[in-house]
Structure formats: structure tokens, C-alpha cells
Amino acid sequence: MQYIIALDQGTTSSRALLFDQLGNFVGLAQAEFRQIFPQKEWVEHNPNEIWESQMTVFEQLIKEHHIKAQYISGIGLTNQRETTIIWDKNTGEPIYNALVWQDKRTNDICERWKKGEWSEKVRQKTGLVIDSYFSASKIRWLLDNIPQAREKAEKGDLLFGTVDTWLIWKMTKGKVHATDYSNASRTMLFNIKDLCWDSELLNYFEIPENILPEVRNSVDFYGNFRYQETNIPILGVAGDQQAALFGQTCWQAGTAKNTYGTGCFMLINTGDKLVVSEKGLLSTIAWRIGSKVEYALEGSIFAAGAAIQWLRDGLQIIKKASETESLAFQSPDNHGVIVVPAFAGLGAPYWDMFAKGAIFGLTRATTQADIVRATLESVAFQTKDVLELMLEESDLQLPHLQVDGGATANHFLMQFQSDILGVPVQRPVCLESTAAGAAYLAGIGAGLWEKEDLVKRKQIDKIFYPQFSETQRIEKYHLWQEAVMRILTK
Ligand code: ADP
Questions:
Q1: FRET pair for 436, CA 20 to 30 Å: which of 7, 335, 362, 399?
Q2: The pTM of the whole model exceeds 0.85
Q3: What does the pLDDT look like over 173-205, one tens digit per residue?
Q4: Considering the domain boundaries, does residue 285 fall inside one?
């Protein structure tokens, strides 16, 4: 038996997952690492702790499953995106902690960058909006604030990488300084049309090109990781959301996945077509395999699982997230209650940062179950808002929606999602889509399987088929849209 190991380096934990030669998920090891909050809105990780935790779980996985290194055909790597590390290539030591994607210390740098035509230029070139979320302003902050960083960078002594690049460099003992197209496209420095680091942006942002990694295909040879006197090749790399899209086998234009966690992360494959959104969706490279680049549109929903947490911790009308399912089934048509959980404003397609949440349609007969049900429905409505925008801007049709994440355990939510979208919702047996994506990429690189084999072997746990009539769907969605209109501040 041959295996693939996926390393899934996430925001709060490092994981290693084992897949067999048919692409089946076998087991995993996981370790959390330190979150560092030096001050308000600053979020850091220690790059050496990231590396050590990743190695710990790798070894733990191998030991627990009694796998010899020679039976590992390859490693697939997926990672928290945008998080920025700069290190000295001579000593191998980071010049500062990793600035995590959530870190907001560079908001003011981004505000300055938004001058004149630059917002539009950045959008056209990188598919992104100027924001502290992406790597560019974090690199700039490190070069400006860490003593001697800029001089060293100009002398060619420093290297920048997102977490994939850092781990590849460590695994290859400093031989390979590379990233893949999906990760590069989240730096706000990569021209996703021309497929190169954009010199005009680098000039404007004052970032020297020599610190940037080489950009390679998502299926490629990234060097060997030497373990137990064996060379294990690193063969697949993708940022976490793109890896999840790949892992959900969303390989045709129009196929989409939604991850229901604290927030929702939705991506739709737009094939070889780069769609630059007019309404605040992000365009990104999904992956590049062979000479073929595929693009995706990405949208997120701030309050999904977070709204369920609010029912539990804020309102305290449930004890556990899983109770919401049976409560929702007890509420026939939620008695007209609509919950709009705009706890952090509203994202795409409304973009109103000042909107506050609201509950509509209360009567003396309103029950706890109605509010619970309406909160679950709000997750599905928000998903529809983003998906409709994606379909409109890309001019694509959605055959079905692939789902994963913690809240997909909720039957009510999944059924209602299908009802309100009017397409089937498919939940796979293996909910580890992100790691599966990295493993699938590496397995293609190792020649263990072709894409077609993976599609054939894919196991679906459950398909939720739409049960609403067209009229029901329109009426219900209309109520939601009206409620949203009433909380907009402009
Ligand atoms: P994250 O990776 O963002 O922590 P997970 O994928 O682990 O998220 O999903 C956890 C989220 O899903 C929590 O916000 C929780 O409230 C919600 N959740 C978990 N189980 C259920 C359920 N059965 N019904 C509704 N929501 C759920």
C-alpha cells in the first residue's frame, strides 16, 4: 500500500492526514499552537512553533499508523493563507513573528495605498481589494519596522513566504524557496492575468522583488523532505480554500463549495475565465496544473456558525449547537420570523459595515424554536445572496452545491439550503475537504491517480434535494431581502 500525507497548516492548529492509494482518508494527528496577541488587533504566530507543531503531527501520524517512509509517495501541503513570514536566509531565523491574516496593524498602510487609481489597479491586476488581510501590507510593515530589515532585504539576505513557502523551505533544508499559484494570488502582489509578480505594484508598495518566492504549479515537484533516510517528495501545494475546492472535486466551471464554520467560505470555479467582480467578491487563482490555470470567485459570510454561537452564548436559548436541528423542525415555517445576524455589518453583495442585526416578525406567539429556525435560515439566505451574485457576475449555472464544515451536520440547515437555492446540496462522506484537496494534488503528482479516478471513487454521504415550489422559494427569499433592506444604513 502506498500513501499520501497531507499537511494542513491552519490558523489555530497544525494537522497531518493520511490518505491511502485510492484517495481514502485513513487518519489524522493534530496539535494546536500558540496564538500571540501583543496588542489590540495584532495577531502573530511564532514560525518555529508552526514548523515544530507540523513536524510533531507528521511523526505522530506515521507512528500511530506504523507507516514506513518509503511507502509515502508524496506530501501535499495546504495552509492558512496570506499569513506573512520573513526570514534571514543565512541563519534560517525569522526576523519577526508571522503576521497572521487576521492581523489589522496595517490598516493605515492600506488606507494610504487606496489613493487615486490604485484601488482599481489592484483589483484588475490581483483580483483583490486593498486590505490588511493580504500579505503585501504585512511585508511592508516588517521591512519598515524591524531594524535593518530593509537593508538586508536589499542585499538579498531575506526571504518572504506565506506559510506554505516557509514549510517547504524548512522541509527542503533551505534548498527550495517557492510557492504555488493559489497562494501567490493572495499576496496582493501577483498579477493573476499575466501570472507574474507585478513590478508596478512592487514599486508602489516598495517591496523588493528579490525576497519573493518562485511560483510553481499546484501539482509540481517542490523538493524532497528527508525522513527516516528516505526522500519524500513534496508534490502538491494549495492555499486552504482553493484546496477545499479541489478536494470537493469542483473541477468544472460553475461547480461550487461552501464551508459552514464560524463564517462561511464559498468558492465557485470559473474555469479559465478570470471574472473581476464589480460587487466586492474576490477573484483568485484556484490552481494551475500543467499549463492550465483555473480561476475562482470567492465570497465569505461573517456570521454563520457565529450566529449559532450567539443563540447559545448570547441569547442562551440553546445549550449546544446541535439542539438547533430538532428545535427548527418544531417550528412550522418559523411563524414569519426573520433573523438578520449582521453582527459585523453585512458583506457581499450589500457591503454595509455599519448595519446592525435585527429580528423581524415577532408576535406574542413567537417561540424559542422560531428564533432558532430563523437563525439557521439566515445562514442559508446569506449563502444564496453570495451565490446569486457569483452566478450573475460569472454568467454560470450551478448544478449543485458541495458542502463541508461543522454546521453541515445540521439536516434542517442543509435541507433548507437546498430548498432556497433550488439545487441539490451534496455532503461528502469525507468532510476533510481541505486536506483531501492537498492529498489529491500530491497523488496526481505521484501518479497514484488521475482526476477521473477520484471523481468515480468519491463517496457522497447525503444529497438534499430541493422540495420548495418556485413560488415558495421566491416568496421566502423575498421576505429575507426585505428584512435586509430595512437594516441597511445607506
Ligand atoms: P471553525 O473551523 O470555523 O471553528 P467548524 O467547521 O468546526 O468551524 O464548525 C463549527 C461551527 O459550526 C460553530 O460555529 C458551531 O456553532 C456550528 N455548528 C456545529 N454543529 C452544528 C449543528 N449541528 N447545527 C448548527 N451549527 C452547528
A1: 399
A2: yes
A3: 999 999 999 999 999 999 999 999 999 999 999
A4: yes
